[in-house]
Amino acid sequence: MGKTVKEIAEFLGGTFSGDGDAVIENVKGLDEAGQGDLSFLSNPKYRKKIDTTEASAILVSPEIKSDKTLIHVKDPYIALAKVLSLFHDPENHPSGISGQAFVAEGAEISEDAVLYPGVYVGPKAVIGKRVILYPGVKIGPQVVVGDDSILYYNVTVYGRCLIGKKVIIHAGVVVGSDGFGFANPGRDNFKIPQVGIVQIDDDVEIGANTTIDRATLGKTWIQKGVKIDNLVQIAHNVVIGQNSIIVAQVGISGSTTLGRSVIIGGQSGLIGHINIGDAVMIGAQSGISEDVDSNQIVSGSPHMPHRQWLRTQAIIGRLPELYKKISLLENQVREMESKLKKE
Amino acid sequence: MGKTVKEIAEFLGGTFSGDGDAVIENVKGLDEAGQGDLSFLSNPKYRKKIDTTEASAILVSPEIKSDKTLIHVKDPYIALAKVLSLFHDPENHPSGISGQAFVAEGAEISEDAVLYPGVYVGPKAVIGKRVILYPGVKIGPQVVVGDDSILYYNVTVYGRCLIGKKVIIHAGVVVGSDGFGFANPGRDNFKIPQVGIVQIDDDVEIGANTTIDRATLGKTWIQKGVKIDNLVQIAHNVVIGQNSIIVAQVGISGSTTLGRSVIIGGQSGLIGHINIGDAVMIGAQSGISEDVDSNQIVSGSPHMPHRQWLRTQAIIGRLPELYKKISLLENQVREMESKLKKE
Amino acid sequence: MGKTVKEIAEFLGGTFSGDGDAVIENVKGLDEAGQGDLSFLSNPKYRKKIDTTEASAILVSPEIKSDKTLIHVKDPYIALAKVLSLFHDPENHPSGISGQAFVAEGAEISEDAVLYPGVYVGPKAVIGKRVILYPGVKIGPQVVVGDDSILYYNVTVYGRCLIGKKVIIHAGVVVGSDGFGFANPGRDNFKIPQVGIVQIDDDVEIGANTTIDRATLGKTWIQKGVKIDNLVQIAHNVVIGQNSIIVAQVGISGSTTLGRSVIIGGQSGLIGHINIGDAVMIGAQSGISEDVDSNQIVSGSPHMPHRQWLRTQAIIGRLPELYKKISLLENQVREMESKLKKE
Fold first, then answer.
1. Spatial separation of the C-alpha atoms in residues A163 and A340, rounded to whole Å
2. What are phi and psi of A269, to 5 degrees?
3. Which positions 57-96 of B are in contact with C (Cβ < 8 Å)?
4. Closest-CA residue in chain C for A75?
């Protein structure tokens, strides 16, 4: 399966310097790579490692120079993605429906879909072409799963939810559980039925054990190309705009709407019923309690412009010092005042 | 299945204005509703939408006026819950025990319980009347599940835990995993066996992928009517008082006790071994490290009275400005002092 | 099964005061214990309960005095762990491979392993001696599970990951899901294949619904003796050093490395690509964005030395007061300045 440095550079549409005939058998990180391994540098923080790595060649951006054998590409991270496909075969799957899967009456399974043991598909569900349902996946009644989607181990999709094409859902994800809606909270906690659905559009990827609640009415909507990390909470009637990125452990409260290309850092929380514009960036551990206009970068809880937040953060730890300064000033002013009075 | 506005108003014990003969076929949100749809207004933030909605009628509170056809009720959110039952049939279930469910020796399954494919019920477990165990539910040995409870897909209940009546547990919830108890933490991490249980009382609802650990000794106790959202962590020996509301991604540490009707906002954390009184409200993303008396509203990390927190939040972002003010004051005072000395 | 106080003291290598012939039948908390029960005091906060407990005997540290029957031991919490083994039998398991488990071709199951119904073991996986796979466990292709490990209900291990010996993994945990790696985030979200693995060493315990992502290249590595609580997120290529303790809902971002014996409080977040030294303690709800040297205690977001953080926290709630003080000082200084000018 070996490829030469020259072949790989051509495959990637890049150039090489050094030994073009070196044979690459595998791809590894800079620290682990050895003879026969290709490595990559995408985070400039690790630039010095080029001098110490044992890799036979390194994928780098055009401005990097070294005596080592280099493959220069515009974006080494994307090049890494492409080159990995040369050296790593995709998982093999058995064909068809396992005898230990359960398909309810009226469900439609496309002939080339794969249903592993322990899969459950409810009544009138529709499973698209080349869909892979890993062991333990549970599909509720009337769910539709689009072509080429992959649902990993123990994913649950409640009834009537819609999953698009080329969607990847990792293990333990729950799609379509009831939204958290109770009238008179803390008193009689009267349950509001959650009769809406979740709609997940094409090319979405969802991380392990994330939860996405169904809408009270209408739909909770994850739009095309959105990527969601692990252990994220998406409440009822939330809309997440195209290509947005939601990092791990974020929580988004009910009926909040995100524009396109929003990026939310890990562990942030968004209150309900607000609108976040397009291309907003929200720092990790932020708390967002108001609308945010498009193209803003905000951080903090309460959130503020990111630059202001950086300045604020720099001062937080100096509060004890500020406190002392103020006390000192108070004493000085008091003394001066009494002096002035005497005069 | 259509009902007239007049019929619905009567069913809800409310009154109507406008076209009482308009026929309602479905219930939708204000934005999505059209001809034949009933909608509702419960959040005053959306009041203007009454003017623009295409709904044939709107559930509103008594003080709302409009030329549109309105159904006036005391609490539109509760009325919504009631009216949804007119238009949405509950899910149909197969009857009895699936041939692909597994029931261990000595387990008792009430005749009218539903066990879907992939359900496991351990030795000596007792499953009550009309209980529904969705595909993939795992019930450990000696667990008791009370009448009319619903456990959704892939819920796990470890051995000996007790689930009350009319309890709803959403997909992926884990009840009864070991509490996190290790002696000499960071050194030998000696495991303390967790031999207690979890007891969940009647009318509790638990959101997807939430985890509730068993007690070291005795029980972790979720009392009657408590509602817990998704991805919440409840540690060993915690007690949550009746009708309390725990929003998504909250974490409650070991042996902490909550009174009745406590409401905790999303992503808050409570330290262990503290007592929270009745009817306490805790804001989102708070950090609670001490007892809180009944009827308090607190926020922040560290927590403080909610009003104080609001004032504090307003100042946080102005810290850089305060810092400059202090520096300026220091200069002014220094100058004045030297002036006074000269004199 | 009863044991006398004297027998228990001997078993624990401790001493007793009071009635050595009292017969103990069970172990309970101080509040619940009655006639025939042994209880324990390890948290000094509850010392007064010794006077009120109905327990027949109490495990205490050497300095505690009381008229009650006491068993004095060096560490009552460890003694509790040992004594529980006298009174609580471990769960019984059926032997062998359930007829409702699925073992793929080429998988090796040690003869004395237990596979419950609904277990799936993928091609070429290796399951060690005395391993227990609870109902619904899913083991991907080529996974290795070491001897004496216990995987509870619905645990998922993706392909090629390595689980050591005597590992305990609680229900719903996901090991080996794809790391969150996308080039051009927010724009085309180009997926970077995640071809590395997760390696979990011996004696690790992992709490319910925690997620551990596989490495992009190489491995995400949980070293020997690490204990991880519920709902924790471990990103790709993270390394957690021996005997570290990670409390619930912590999130650790990609490629961050922890030394030995690190303790991280609940809900804290660590940014990616940083190094945390040995024996670092990180307070709950902290946000760590830089390297931390060994043996530091840090808290806060942004983090700072714990003592500084305590002083800072004490001032946060007084910001409105500080703000007023500064305004007052400004007025005073202004007045004095105009006075001085006049003179």
1. 78
2. -130, 140
3. none
4. C183
- Please tell me whether residue C141 adopts helix, strand or coil conformation: coil
The bridge status of strand B263-264 relative to strand B281-282 is parallel
Residues 6+ apart with CB under 8 A from B248: A180, A233, A235, A251, A253, B207, B229, B230, B231, B232, B266, B267
Report how far apart, in Å, the C-alpha atoms of A87 and of each of A24, A44, C196, C213 are.
9, 25, 12, 21
- Report the chain C residue with the minimal C-alpha distance to residue B190: C78
Which of C12, C6, C49, C13 has its CA nearest to residue C28? C49
* Three-state secondary-structure class, residue B82: helix
User: Which ipTM was obtained for this model?
Assistant: 0.95
| CA gap A31, A50 in Å, rounded | 9
For C213-226, write each residue's pLDDT tens digit.
999 999 999 999 99
Instruction: Classify each residue of B24-62 as buried b or exposed e, where b means 16 or more C-beta atoms within 10 Å of its C-beta.
Output: bebbbbbebbeebbbbbbbeeebeebbeebebbbbbbbe
Burial (CB < 10 A; 0-12, 13-18, 19+), residue A166, is middle
Q: ∠ at Cα A183 (A179, A186), nearest 5°? A: 100
Task: Please state the φ and ψ torsions of residue B133, each to the nearest 5 degrees.
Answer: -105, 105
CB < 8 Å to B31, chain A: 218
Shortest CA distance to B53 belongs to which of A270, B199, B67?
A: B67
Residue pairs spanning A and B at CB distance below 8 A: 199
> Which one, of B248, B244, B84, B266, lies nearest residue B256 by Cα?
B244
Confidence of residue B317 (pLDDT cuts 50, 70, 90): confident
In angstroms, the CA A4 to CA A25 distance is 9
Closest alpha carbon to C171 in A153, B171, B174: B174
Nearest CA in chain B to A154: B154
- Residue A175 CA neighbour count, 13 Å, CB half: 39
- Total beta-carbon pairs less than 8 A apart between chain B and chain C: 199
Say if C1 is an interface residue toward chain B (CB within 8 Å).
no
Sheet containing strand B251-252, strands side by side: B102-103, B120-121, B138-139, B156-157, B174-177, B211-213, B233-234, B251-252, B269-270, B287-288
**Closest Cα of chain B to A183: distance in Å?**
6
Cβ neighbours, 10 Å, residue B307: 11
Give the bridge partners for B59, in sequence order: B40, B71
Shortest Cα distance, chain A CAs vs residue B139, angstroms: 16
With helix as H, strand as E and coil as C, how does B221-276 read? EECCCCEECCCCEECCCCEECCCCEECCCCEECCCCEECCCCEECCCCEECCCCEE
A203, A181 contact by CB (below 8 A): no
- A279: which chain C residues are within 8 Å (Cβ-Cβ)? 186
High-pLDDT (> 90) share of chain B, %: 88
| Residue A69: C-alpha distances to residues A40, A75, A81, B65 (Å) | 11, 17, 20, 76
**C-beta separation of B156 from B133 below 8 A:** no
- Over residues B35-54, the mean pLDDT reads 92
| Length of chain C in terms of residues written | 343
Determine contact: B220 vs chain C, CB below 8 A. Answer: no
First to last CA, chain A: 95
> Is B264 in contact with B243 (CB distance < 8 Å)?
no
Residue-level pLDDT at C244: 98
Buried b (16+ CB within 10 A) or exposed e, C69-107: bbbbbebbbbbbbbbbeebeeebeeeeebbebbbbbeeb
Question: Among B230-239, B266-275, B327-336, which stretch is predicted with the lowest mean pLDDT?
Answer: B327-336
Provide the 8-state DSSP code for C252: E
Please report the residues numbered 135 through 154 in chain A whose beta carbons come closer than 8 angstroms to any beta carbon of chain B: 136, 138, 140-141, 154
Q: Which residues contact A159 (CB under 8 A, 6 or more apart)?
A: A122, A140, A141, A142, A143, A176, B91
Which residues of B participate in catalysis according to the annotation? Answer: 236
Q: Per the structure block, which two tokens stand in for A227?
A: 């990527």
d(CA C273, CA C171): 29
